[in-house]
Design goal:
16% strand, UDP-N-acetylmuramoyl-L-alanine:D-glutamate ligase, six-stranded mixed beta sheet, Protein-Tyrosine Phosphatase, Chain A, alpha/beta, eight-stranded mixed beta sheet, 427 residues
Length: 427
């Protein structure tokens, strides 16, 4: 059995926020996370996209980069990338086995609880990046911030993307409580970059740091052509037009966060950033990704109300004359009602599929919630939903688009059901 499958057995113990266990593991390893510079990224939406943008630009500027993100889409190795390439299966297996033994031994010795799946996953990232001598690593939090296993780092820059409602059962049921948890990554004396935030969120962030820079106040980005041709002005330069490879208004916001972070890093490390290749060649699957031409279909990992709102804006911007049929699936901790309400204005047809993954919600449960909103929805298997959606598009070709959304885990499910066989974007 591949080592990661054994590691996954630890997910049965659930999520246990806290820093004691990860600190003990890292101390035993000689604190590998202190051997390279770190950019630490938290937020509700956009963490992965911002992290990918920062990594891509820094790589194009000659840095040896590490990137740690979660969750993965198709393979566990995707969580660990150096210079854009995932860790090899052989090396990953070896380091997982080593790390599990180190974690179990130190937890037994110190008489503390067993390490969780994410704590060990995080320790793997730090050890791998240290072993490979990266210059700088972009580390995405798993959930929250304050008590997230990644929050043992002292970053060169802390980055906070847009904060909204998500993971309320762990982070709190108000935006103020959630913001407080995200703000926990801010470290005294270290610069902080934030996406634009609501006033109540700003107040919470500024308790932790009075010197936060908000990207919309410093970096100016204007769309000057389709699909995403941008004019970017930073604190120090006006860039030549750039074709951002990630689509949507929210990606322009994410881009401003990434650019401001890199500008600040340039000041700290004394280099003049170049951006064009880095921003034009980002590969970040699952973010408004076309996966079928016939029928036309995209998949997007939006999974909370803010994500749904952004998806609607992007669909209207890119496909202003299309009708949209949605294939949706949800994890059991998601605000299904809030998500569907924000999609409702553009729903022409809705199919709900079961999420046969950990924390997955049944199609019937989701349909019940959706029907209570006065919206018709049909519970089908993945293949049944796909066939029904194809038939729906055929009734009005070139005017209808299939959109799969509700969770990044849909990519894993679609791939397993061989729905991606006709696309080069998923292999």
């Amino acid at each position: 059995m591949e080592a990661y499958k054994n590691l996954y057995l630890r997910t049965a113990d659930g999520i246990k926020p806290g820093l004691e266990v990860i600190n003990q593991i890292l101390n035993q390893l000689g604190n590998p996370h202190q051997n390279f510079a770190i950019i630490h990224v938290a937020g509700t939406n956009g963490k992965g996209s911002v992290s990918a943008m920062i990594e891509s630009v820094l790589r194009e500027n000659g840095f040896k980069t590490g990137l740690f993100t979660s969750p993965h889409l198709l393979d566990f190795s995707e969580r660990y990338r150096i210079n854009g390439k995932s860790i090899s299966k052989k090396k990953l297996n070896r380091i997982i086995i080593t790390m599990e033994k180190v974690a179990d031994d130190i937890c037994a010795k110190e008489n503390i609880r067993n390490a969780t799946f994410f704590e060990i996953s995080t320790a793997i990232a730090f050890q791998y990046f240290s072993d490979e001598k990266v210059d700088i690593a972009i580390i995405e939090v798993g959930m929250g911030g304050r008590w997230d296993a990644t929050n043992v780092v002292i970053p060169v820059i802390s980055v906070i993307t847009h904060i909204g409602m998500d993971h309320t059962n762990f982070l709190g049921n108000t935006i103020i409580k959630i913001a407080g948890e995200k703000a926990g990554i801010i470290k005294k004396g270290r610069p902080v970059v934030s996406a634009p935030q609501d006033d109540e969120v700003k107040k919470i962030l500024e308790i932790e740091s009075k010197s936060i820079l908000y990207s919309n106040e410093v970096v100016k980005i204007n769309k000057i052509g389709n699909p995403q041709k941008l004019k970017i002005e930073t604190m120090s330069q006006s860039l030549s037009p750039i074709n951002l490879s990630l689509l949507g208004e929210h990606q322009r916001e994410n881009c401003s966060v990434a650019v401001l972070t890199i500008e600040m890093l340039g000041d700290l490390l004394n280099f003049q950033p170049v951006y064009k290749k880095g921003l034009e060649n980002i590969e970040w699957p699952g973010r408004f990704m076309k996966f079928s031409e016939s029928p036309p279909a995209i998949i997007d990992g939006a999974h909370n109300p803010d994500g749904a709102r952004n998806l609607v804006k992007t669909l209207k911007e890119i496909y202003p004359k299309m009708k949209f049929g949605f294939i949706v699936g949800f994890l059991d901790d998601k605000d299904i009602e809030g998500f569907i309400k924000n999609l409702s204005s553009i729903i022409s047809k809705l199919w709900v599929i079961p999420m046969d993954v950990s924390r997955g919600n049944s199609a019937e449960e989701s349909v019940s919630i959706i029907n209570n909103l006065g919206i018709d929805a049909e519970a089908l298997s993945v293949k049944q939903a796909w066939m029904s959606a194809k038939l729906w598009t055929n009734k009005e070709k070139d005017k209808r688009l299939i959109v799969a959304t509700g969770s990044l885990r849909l990519i894993e499910i679609f791939n397993y059901e061989e729905i991606f066989l006709d696309t080069k974007l998923i292999s």
